[in-house]
Amino acid sequence: MAFDPITAALDIGGKLIDRLLPDKSANDAAKAALVQMQLNGELAQIQGQIQTNIAEAANAHVFVSGWRPYIGWICGTGLGYEFLLRPILTFTAGLLHSAVVAPNIDMGDLIILLTGMLGFGAMRSFDKAKDTDNGH
Questions:
Q1: What per-residue confidence (pLDDT) applies to 1?
Q2: Which of 16, 17, 95, 119 is most buried when burial is the number of CB atoms within 10 A of its CB?
Q3: For residue 90, which of 98, 29, 16 has the smallest C-alpha distance?
Q4: pTM strictly above 0.70
Q5: CB-CB contact of 14 with 34 (8 Å)
Q6: Is 104 left (phi over 0), alpha (psi -120 to 50) or beta?
């Protein structure tokens, strides 16, 4: 079951279509219309978020416009540490026969934060909706 109300409503709509329209072609057409409604809603939501992002970025107050760069620097620092600094520290500790181990960062949480900031999830959905991903 979906956690957001839009997806939950679409899931219920799909189940209703299955029960009410036993004809395969009518069923498929109704489900396609339901998916199109979902995509239109998602695209409108993405466009609204883009407008919010532009307004936030233009704001003169650092607590409004500065949070994205702050999170970006945290993500960049975390990635730099995990992929550059930690392996170098681990290699150096091995050369020095040290038992000290550089702690690792939970990359799952960091990648979720980074991809959300960069909008990768939305762009993938957009590519799939427009059938422009070409299998890549």
A1: 47
A2: 17
A3: 98
A4: no
A5: yes
A6: beta
